[in-house]
Amino acid sequence: MNGAQSLIRSLADAGVEVCFCNPGTSEMHLVAALDLVPELRAVLCLFEGVATGAADGYGRMAGRPAATLLHLGPGLGNGLANLHNARRARTPLVNVVGDHATYHKRLDPPLESDIDAVAASVSGWLRRADAVDDLAADAADAVAAALGPPGRIATLVLPADLAWTDVSWSDAPAVGVPGAVEVVEQVAVAQEVVAGAAAALRSGEPAALLVGGAATRGEALRAAGRIAAATGARLLCETFPARLERGAGVPPVERLAYPAEAVAAQLAGLRHLVLAGAAPPVSSFAYPGVAGDLVPTDCQVHILAHGPEDLAGALTALSDATCAGAGAQLLAPERPLPPTGALTAETMAYGVGALLPEHAIVVDEANTSGPWLPGATAGAPRHDWLTLTGGAIGQGLPVATGAAVACPDRPVLCLESDGSAMYTVSALWTQAHEDLDVTTVVLNNGAYAVLDRELRRAAAGEPGPRARELLDLSRPGLDFVDIARGMGVPAERATTAEEFTRALGRALAEPGPRLIDAVVPALV
User: Fold this and answer.
1) Which listed site, 89, 116, 189, 401, has its alpha carbon 20 to 30 Å from 498?
2) What is the pLDDT of residues 11-54, one digit of tens each?
3) pTM of this prediction?
4) Class (C level, CATH) for 191-322
5) What are the boundaries of each domain within the chain?
């Protein structure tokens, strides 16, 4: 057994079931080792940003890490944007990054770079392997680090000569991981912290409970719903939750808006803000004359739980302290009627709300075309909603790919803006190659509409012809039907609300990947 084989065997024994791969020469022994470990599924991605985004989507839905296999520093760099999003989502994820052989690096070959510096910008755990006999333990440590609460990116850098060198222990094929994967346990929240949050929520002054991380789903969300119902506090969640459970039978949660001015209006008048797995709200960017810290000046912030602390346990304890057996308000089943007439961002949202299937996974990178989606889908059958956590666009198609791999029994609906789709459009090929049940709706407005909006909000003046050229995607227009079909994904175009509803119904009814090119006007 060589080092590559021991590493792949160790990943599988530690519970890693999928590796999203875009390898190169320095990873060929790892590629060969995959044949010896059939329980570790290898998924080919044609761009590293698809591999890292797919691993993010997988980890969000599976609750355990997928691996990526990336080629040297440039390959890792190509995947960096979606690793940034995964870090913000607190996704457990293991990167295996090949490097030049240790003795070859001194020659400064063309692809030589500072891998460790690139990896450190997104990794919560980073190790450069330096002994072939330790590779199995290195892999197990990476998995344990990724699973440590609340979830993080672990990166293991593997020099090529360690991959091809034989391990010294004779019984390596039978041993697998030398020792158990020891995951750091969650830290219990102190009783006095829970009591302080309870006192704030029961003070009679305007209060809100802002949840994030694992508090946006499952029993933690239900506990938050009971707290809000019993105390009268508003229940809010992060602007970009990693995974938000929604729909009929789920407590209603108000997402923080994206524009800073809108968040300031949402929070106006609050005297107490209790944070459960969420950070204090700040604006995504600085704007002239707009405050970046969005917490009202006379509002007291109370941190219930964050980082490695037991978020679900803290919310359950807070529920016990405030609810006295009260139940949470739950959303009633409700759907909009199928829309008719012109296809717009609004009628598109009604079409999604009318047809969204039960237990769907919705990946939302609709951006400026998405304002009506939350309201139109609030009473739909129960579903999960995955969002653009770190703001680096090009996340939607890859995250949908990984979510479909993690949950093959659930339909995945990806709502993708046209500009963002082009960043990682090759994810469609992986969806076809793996026959994944993903329906992609590209909201094709022919523009980088978000940048047009940001140009105005930044008070940069009225855009002239050269500025407008940088915001325009209409010369030439993007034909997503041809793009999708060229990658093996059946596709059709919709230009009216009726066409969209029919196309969406057909796509959701058929297994495998489908794409709808939904032509909508840009919102300004």
Assistant:
1) 401
2) 999 999 999 999 999 999 999 999 999 999 999 999 999 999 99
3) 0.95
4) alpha beta
5) 3-167, 191-322, 345-519
